[in-house]
Amino acid sequence: MNPIDIIKKKRDGENISNTEIEWFIEGYVNGEIPDYQVSAWLMASYINGLDIKETHALTNAIINSGDTIDLSSVEGIKVDKHSTGGVGDAVTLVLGPIVASCNVPFVKMSGRGLGHTGGTLDKLSSIKGLRLDLTSNEIIKQAKDIGIVICGQTGEIAPADKLLYSLRDVTATVNSMPLIAASIMGKKIAMGSDAILLDIKVGNGAFMKTLKEAQELGKTMVDIGKASGIKTIAILTDMEQPLGMSIGNSLEVIEAIDILNGEGNEALRELCLFFAAKTVEIAKPEMSYKEAYLLAKTNLDNGKALKKFREFIRYQGGDDSIIDNLSKLELSKIKCEVYANKSGYLSQNNALLIGQAAFSLGAGRLKKEDNIDLGAGIIIYKRVGDYINEGDLLATLYSDDENKISEGKKLFLSAISIDSNKFDKRSLIIDIISDEKSHD
So what's the pLDDT on residue 425? Predict the structure, then answer.
């Protein structure tokens, strides 16, 4: 085999064998195949696509490119969760503790945010002292001891994915369904969990703009999971407006703690309970969905989930006193309040523009190596369908730069629309895709 023949086959729309893909990716990771040839193959794959067999082979090549974590010594069905990225998405910070409090081990490898979407690792970085760079042995031990782990990707896990993504990022080949699916599932399967819940965002603030795209991605990833013997479910959720009421890193940690305290945004709380119930249902097949939901809600209401979040922070070296004193989560020094200039119903809360507003305030990064302001961001107070009186507080903006406040306010105001007509509140759940069925 040689790389030119493999590039040529994909350029001409031919299928590549499992052996060829495995050899090609292994050669790239080992430094035997140069970036420029892999870039050519990525572009050919982007244009001509990969069929499901090739996508499975690429997933396996990513898994086999490095170490995998063996969680078999951890009792129970181990679950993982992945979000395709959204605005105001603090789900993991609430979901993980709820699931773990139900005696279902939650082991998640997370990433950092890019552009207008937030990353779980950035949110957790708001907590002083919290370690995110865990070794494989530390991950296994922590999963055994407290049943919840959230960490970054170790250098030994799926190194092919890091290398491939860095090339896709600079060769305009990111937005390819098979490449996205193989990237996500390769990392997830390498982490050793028995079940995976996928949260696929749909809408203007998401990577997947249309329902058709999101369904295609969800079906592909569920198929990969099934082929690998891993129970996988994809839940499509609305990202036409921010998921939570806070957008930013410290702000989203505060919102998550509020929900774990029995307060906060009801829509986000209910979505987290729905995810938790579906996750527990997968891990404990003897339980019905209603029983799993009741267990999750009980543990959220009685404080067990909050206690599990405290254990998680403490175990990974963080300052768990933030739970009792939220002011320890630092916010940017400059605060700007935005008020409604007319009365009516909120008809638009454009997630993309609000995410871009938070980015402009300093809450996001353009490149992975960029620094971010962990205390920057936006708190919104209204959701689509809410009635607003002239003079009502719409949002509070945080930044350490007056110029950024001005730009952020401009973007935020462009994101909202107030109309005299009444609008129905949007459902957050759009579709569910699993091994058995897909339904609205």
Answer: 81
Catalytic residue status for 161: yes
Which residue out of 168, 308, 310, 409 is catalytically annotated?
Answer: 168
Look up 183 and say whether it is catalytic.
yes
Quick check: pTM over 0.90? yes
Among the listed residues 56, 78, 81, 82, the single catalytic one is 82
Q: Which fold has domain 79-154+186-325+430-439?
A: Pyrimidine Nucleoside Phosphorylase; Chain A, domain 2 (3.40.1030)
> Given pLDDT bands bounded at 50, 70 and 90, which one contains residue 297?
very high
User: Does the structure show a pLDDT above 50 at 437?
Assistant: no
Query: Is 176 in the active site?
Result: no
Q: What is the mean pLDDT of residues 199-207?
A: 91
- Whole-angstrom Cα distance, residue 77 to residue 249? 30
Which fold does the domain 331-419 belong to in CATH? Aldehyde Oxidoreductase; domain 3 (3.90.1170)
Say if CB 44 and CB 13 are below 8 A apart: no
Known catalytic residue: 187? yes
CA pair distance 347, 422, nearest whole angstrom:
8
Kindly list the domain boundaries of the chain, sorted by start residue. Answer: 3-49, 79-154+186-325+430-439, 331-419
Predicted confidence (pLDDT) per residue in 51-105, tens digit: 999 999 999 999 999 999 999 999 999 999 999 888 999 999 999 999 999 999 9
Known active-site residue 342: no
Is-contact 104 79, C-beta < 8 A?
A: yes
The one catalytic residue in 45, 126, 183, 250 is 183
Q: Where are the alpha helices (DSSP H) in 236-316?
A: 249-260, 266-283, 289-301, 304-315
* Average of per-residue pLDDT values in the chain: 93
Query: Which CATH fold would you assign to the domain 3-49?
Result: 1.20.970
